[in-house]
Amino acid sequence: MFQLRKELLVQSAPADQGSAEPAQGSQSEVLTENDKYKVTQHRYSDLELPPGAIGTVDTALQRALVQVPEVLYIWDYTSLQGTPQRSRIKLPEFAEGETPLCLLTGGDAANAGGSNGIVIVYRSSGKVIFYENVDAVNNLYSKLSTELLSHQLDLKLDASRGECVTRALAMDPVGCVLATSEGRVLFVSLRDSVGRPNVRVVKQLNKPRHTRFNFGFRGTASPRDTVVSLRRGPQTNKDENTCYITTARGQFHIWRLVGAFNAYQLLNVNIYNAVLESLRDLYPFAYNSLQILDSHPVDTSGDPTRHIFLSSISDGQQKNYYILSTVIFDLELKTFSVFSTYRLNTYQAPLAGPTLPQLMIPEREPSQEIINVVVQFPHNVVLTQISSKFDLSFTLKRKWEDILSFRDDVYFIGTGYNTSQLFLMSICGDSQCKIVQVDLKGTNETEHGRNRFVKSHVEQAVYFQSTAQSTPIEFNLSDDIYLDEQIVSEDLSICSDDIFHSKSKFILSSGEVNLLGNLKSRLMYYNNFLNFVAHNFKERTSPQLKCTFIEKYEIMNCCLSLLQFIDQKPNGALQEIWSKILLANNLSLEEFVISKLELFPTVLTHLLKELAGVSDHHTNELPLIIDFLIGILYNSVLESGENQLKLNAFGLSAHDHTPLPWFITLDNLTSINDLFFQYKFELAESHQLEGKDQVSEQFLTLLKILYYCFNSVKVWFAENTAEIQAQAQQYETASQINKLYVDNHTDWNKVLCEVGYEQQSIQIAEFYQDLESLVETLETLPHDDPMSADYYDKFFEKYGYKFATALYEYYCRTNKLNDLFYRFPKWKPLLVQFLGNNQDKYGEISWIQNVFDGEYEAASKTLSGLPLLGTPMDAGQLHLNIAKLTALAADGPDVEELTRIQANLDLLAAERDLMHNIADADFTINTWYANTDFEVIYVKVLQALRETKCVSLNEVIELYTLTSSQEAFIESIRVFAAHMNTLPYDVKKYLTAAIWRRCILHDGYFNGSVDDPSKSLLYGVLVCFFEEQLYEEGDFSLPQPTQLMDHSVSHADLLTNLYAQYLNDGDVAGLRRTIDDDIEQIKNLGESLTLKVQSLVSNANDSTGNRCVVDYETNEIVQAV
Known about the structure:
Layout: E1 28-33, E2 37-48, E3 54-58, E4 63-67, E5 71-76, E6 86-90, E7 101-105, E8 117-121, E9 127-131, H1 134-137, H2 142-149, E10 151-154, E11 165-171, E12 175-180, E13 185-191, E14 197-206, E15 210-211, E16 220-221, E17 227-232, E18 240-247, E19 251-258, E20 262-270, H3 272-279, E21 291-297, E22 306-314, E23 320-330, E24 335-343, E25 358-360, E26 370-376, E27 380-387, E28 401-405, E29 411-417, E30 421-427, E31 432-440, H4 453-464, H5 485-500, H6 515-536, H7 543-568, H8 573-584, H9 589-595, H10 600-614, H11 622-649, H12 666-685, H13 693-719, H14 721-726, H15 728-754, H16 758-767, H17 771-778, H18 786-799, H19 801-813, H20 817-822, H21 828-837, H22 839-852, H23 856-864, H24 873-889, H25 895-917, H26 933-946, H27 953-961, H28 966-979, H29 985-1001, H30 1004-1007, H31 1017-1027, H32 1041-1044, H33 1052-1059, H34 1069-1084, H35 1087-1103, E32 1108-1111, E33 1116-1120
Antiparallel strand pairs: 1-2, 2-31, 3-4, 4-5, 5-6, 7-8, 8-9, 9-10, 11-12, 12-13, 13-14, 15-16, 17-18, 18-19, 19-20, 21-22, 22-23, 23-24, 25-26, 26-27, 27-28, 29-30, 30-31, 32-33
Helix pairs in contact: 4-5, 4-6, 5-6, 5-7, 6-7, 7-11, 8-10, 10-12, 11-12, 11-13, 12-13, 12-15, 13-15, 15-16, 15-17, 16-17, 17-19, 18-19, 19-21, 21-22, 22-23, 23-24, 24-25, 26-27, 27-28, 27-29, 28-31, 29-34, 31-35
């Protein structure tokens, strides 16, 4: 993995006083960076500090100082040495175990180039010690240095009230200012008027009021009157300085300190109520909770009238709001006003411990339009910016705000800052002294538009989290920070896209690192990104957005695996195909990997399709192709992406994705399925399918890929059925994928069984609830194996009727009737339920159970209700005969049911006769219907009969009447008369008209080729009609001219229902045209039609003994004799 930056450990020359750089040798490292700041850590591994150490960084003197109870360390933090030289000063023992306050001072005011001095203040005893030359006491015995070189002062603290020094501020060149726990502020001079050491209290700068209690005790300072801030102001001339004092009760003082002899007050006001009033409308609870915490001049070396006050208010629910109040003072009128109020948005933790937050405002450059404001909390640093122009637009300008968070085991022991840098001295678990340097970039906010807080922190976590093994930075965001969900989604999407398309400035270009290195680094960054999102925004982002992020990770990981695999096998078919696909898509490898990965799903689909096709010709490379497939899909996508990220890290369902995941397409699934079976057949042919664990594992892994993908489609379709059905293309794709699954899933498991992985097949089929495959795998186990019986009981109990259905369907499908009825007597109720629910599908079996249970009537109805069409005649006849027997065996036989059964038996007998008749050479289609759709029907029905399959009654009639044989027509009316009552009314009307119309059209008597009426085809058929009294069956009518010419009898819906299955695309228009032609031929016969039909009907009736009274005007039988 390549380095994030070309150098994280950099060196630079010492800067000027306004921009001092700490030593950046081998122990310095960049922790994080963005457009506003850069954070660097400098470690001093040889300096280990005990708890309670206190430090400071004096940027004016370019010195770092750390004091512990016995020793004081001072060094030049701008030194280029990795381990700089340090002064080590043994502290006098005025208070055992106490760590004093220490201040560095400059040289004599008259001699600015003199050495640095140091002031040591013992807080409890009030002893002040001044050394005017640090170098003189370096490593000197403390007693000797105290006696010979120190200058001392006793502050005479009030021990009765436990008074101690709480704050100290160096005020070069005039001395220092000390604050005590009693609220006193003392101006201490260090030198006399000619620059000689002379430590004395010049003046007490404030006189705190005390709250007196009854009982005569002395009062103590109010807790709200303690000094919370000592700040240095501008140095007005060589020996004058300004000091700002703020107390917890809001008392604010400005003092002018003059040389070593005097101090006078410029201002003394209380800002507490004014700040409180400014918060009243937005924060009513401020009245009971406002605390003044710190203050700082806006311009340290310039205007003394503008100050920012830090305060806190609490809502009483363990949440604090921290307020920055900008206050402008009028020194002449001794008045002030609260100019603006701003609440910090990134930190809301309650105050903890005695240490208060610290406000820091680095001096700005004259050209800067913004002012940096920093608030240091125990483990956090909040940075914000305000406009340097205090005009009417000041409060309307958007405030930039950010937060640096540190680990809980990181403790700040001192700070320092200059115009552009902030220094945080810290210790952590390893006790090493460290300085965290924050370089504040003087970037005006308007240069970059809206600040993207989320984007900035995501980038820091992504690109810097791995750069330092022991980074003190805590990159995760606090739950207290309010973030707009839309902005979160936008910023996360930008960060994701920057990595995916190599747009981030932190990603090395292909010129700096090879393609594999580039992709590896992006993958590492993207993994950091996903971890950050999972930890910070799991509940603030939609499942769809999280799936989009995971998808990009999977694509990059899959692409990396692909490139690594090709890199290992550079001369095979895989490399050849890969190069061809890139060329076909007009892509260079570099362009594709760096910025075109959105095309990867399409490219992968082409690759898999090519591999599935080429494997037929490169069978020797099939094992390699299978390993490749497993590597890029299972390891890189399913395991790393779907399992570890989607399911575990983000807690999503495997199906939280709409539409389907990028790798699940019909083409991909088809290719994987093809490769699965090609590999199986190749191994089977070479006798390498069995006995190899590696091969078994390969098939198992492929099966996991297939099942995961198809199951995702199944769930997706179930959850989005309405939407998918509304889109024809999506519905068609889903249907094709489902068909692919149905056609192959049991065969996958058969292969697993063939390689000896029956148990694994059972496990995966159980996991995905593929009960059909589960049953088929269980059936490979020996029946006498106790484990087999346990499995069946387990799954009967777990899945109940669903498992029973899969098992019983398997037995029915494979004709294992003995197992069906006898193997699982314990679960007979489920068998009875299954057979009862599936009589339409398994009626030819379910009747057996009815017989076993003595339910003969049910058995008879089941058998008689079995469909006959298309089934073998022998089977149909057997079922009907058994139905007849069981009907007779039932209590109180159903006569109507028996009649219906017998009618079907008779129809079967007629079909057998027809089957024998078609063997006759004269049994051919009438040439009139040749080359029409009726011939298509004729041929297909004829074929069914030759195969001894049952056909319908209307098909029997059609077959007889499409010939020219009188015997065929006679047989047709016999069959029709016998069974016409089983037909719907419109079918009867259609067949009646068709029989008589075709009979007339094929009769030579009507077309003039036959003169003798007794030789007429119709006459012979009518004789049979009267002689056998066929008119008595149903309502079989005589031929009526109006009926023969009625087009509506043969309507399209009727023809579609009867014959669409025989025609291409189910189009019956050709049948209608043929029937219309028949009707036109009938109409062309004119008046002779009626006369000849009447004559033939009369003659036929006479020849058979006039058994009917016929109305010859209408050809209706009035009465049968």
